Amino acid sequence: RSSHFEPRDAAHNMQRFYRLTVTRDLFGTVLLVREWGRIGHSCQRRCEEKPTVTDAHHAAARLAAQKRRRGYLPVAG
Question: How many whole angstroms separate alpha carbon 73 and alpha carbon 24?
Fold first, then answer.
């Protein structure tokens, strides 16, 4: 499952994105993948191992709430 957020503000030339994905690697390890950067450019990526899928979803929800407080809006699709 993936969540995608963007704060767009043309007046400040702000075109960023933040994506959270809960997935498993080839060995079955649960990962929370965080990707962020400027839209249309290469992004930075961080993968964090989590003990369970539930823990990964809770961590993703905390990060999503933090991004919404900073003005990022969820994007459908």
Answer: 26
